[in-house]
């Protein structure tokens, strides 16, 4: 009989766990190295853990089992890191404004780290909000970068045009300067809401990675 490769063995183990009715395989991970099968993840009872191990032992070619499955009772509210990561990835995929293929997700002890590069600042913020909404998340570090634009002058013209479209903002009173992806706003506005309008307009320009607000209230 031909010796199974680790990849074939992993496929057989996963298929057997899926076939076994006493095991909920959804949260069980399987790794194989030179015939040694490592089981990881979570099950809901010790009996289910034993059933998973028994199912793996039925597979031809398994030399040994490294049992790392943890039992998480229904009363235990802690959510596993891999579950959190999967839910965040799904949430990002469901959010049309976020390019899911550009955002990477890492979860360690409930703390989420987002990385990657997007075209717009609001996409970075939407990804952070999506991660924060998932149960079990204890914190979010957002390392997503906004792709810088090679033409800062174009960024400035886009922002100025956005100012002119705002009925509540005196565009002529606001000065815009750019330095790479950094936008500096200066001048005077009539009220705090005008300052917020100016900041939002600046952040809405593609490639903006930082907004420095020097606006004062007249």
TrEMBL record:
Residues 5-73, 80-148, 151-218 form the BON domain. It comes from the Bacteria. InterPro entries: BON_dom, Lipoprotein_DolP, Transpt-assoc_nodulatn_dom_bac. SMART domains: BON (SM00749). Gene3D superfamilies: 3.30.1340.30. Pfam families: BON. This is Osmotically-inducible protein OsmY, contains BON domain. It comes from Sphingopyxis terrae subsp. ummariensis.
